[in-house]
Write a structure and sequence with these properties.
Blueprint: H1 2-33, E1 56-61, E2 64-70, E3 75-77, E4 84-86, E5 89-93, E6 101-106, E7 125-129, E8 141-147, E9 151-156, E10 164-169, E11 174-175, E12 179-181, E13 186-192, E14 200-204
Antiparallel strand pairs: 1-2, 2-5, 3-4, 5-6, 7-8, 8-9, 9-10, 11-13, 12-13, 13-14
Length: 223
């Protein structure tokens, strides 16, 4: 009789524990589906074709607002072309924040195995209009981005649906962040290379002296 009582108590305890676990899990899942916000409200969303999002830059271009979003390394199918592409820069029309629209994707660098750090993708984005830059076409808009961790690139994104590379520069072992001062046209580019003895290399981006898609350096260190 005593053994039966212990068995009943053990079974009851097990059932209680299972019920508690199920209730806790269900509550956690319900909470996970809820928006978590304070003084803000989610009104729009875009999954970037399941790519990660890192540095976003939003720029007004004409009567549209365009978002340039960098990504970490990886690869996904571009829904606009059906082609598998390395994660890079996603360009979206966010004029209607409730319905962001993917306009184009510029593929990034293929990742490689380097102990201790991430490679691949195109994490950073900086955008200047030609009217802000000292020596550029006032009717155009330009994107400065990283290409993985090996170089920096400049694109003419006046037509966000059809970005055109106009320059690439730097031969780094590691470059990551960048900053672009539109008023002066100076880009501050951190990186490492035997040719450079400083941790930050300053490049004058404009004027660009190369034809579109040139693979040579488009700018020269100023400090």
């Amino acid at each position: 009789m005593k053994a039966m009582t212990i068995s009943v108590r053990t079974a009851a305890a097990a059932l209680f524990a299972a019920a508690f676990l199920w209730t806790s899990t269900a509550a956690a899942q319900a909470n996970a589906r809820k928006e978590e916000a304070h003084n803000v409200r989610l009104i729009g969303f875009h999954d970037l074709a399941a790519r990660s999002a890192y540095q976003p830059t939003i720029k007004q271009q004409g009567n549209r607002w365009i978002a340039y979003v960098g990504s970490h390394g990886g690869r996904m199918v571009n829904p606009l072309t059906g082609q598998l592409e390395e994660n890079g820069t996603s360009i979206l029309d966010v004029t209607d924040p409730r319905a962001p629209k993917l306009l184009s994707h510029i593929a990034g660098e293929k990742g490689r195995e380097v102990p201790g750090r991430e490679t691949g993708g195109a994490q950073m984005t900086r955008v200047c209009s030609g009217s802000e830059l000292p020596k550029a076409d006032r009717n155009k808009t330009y994107l400065l981005r990283t290409f993985g961790d090996s170089r920096q690139e400049v694109y003419d994104v006046s037509s966000p649906e059809k970005p055109v590379m106009i320059a690439q520069f730097g031969q780094f072992r590691s470059t990551h962040k960048n900053e672009w001062e539109c008023k002066s046209g100076i880009a501050y580019v951190p990186g490492s290379h035997e040719a450079y003895r400083a941790t930050r290399v300053t490049y004058t981006i404009f004027p660009i002296r190369l034809s579109p898609c040139s693979s040579a350096r488009s700018a020269f260190p100023t400090s």
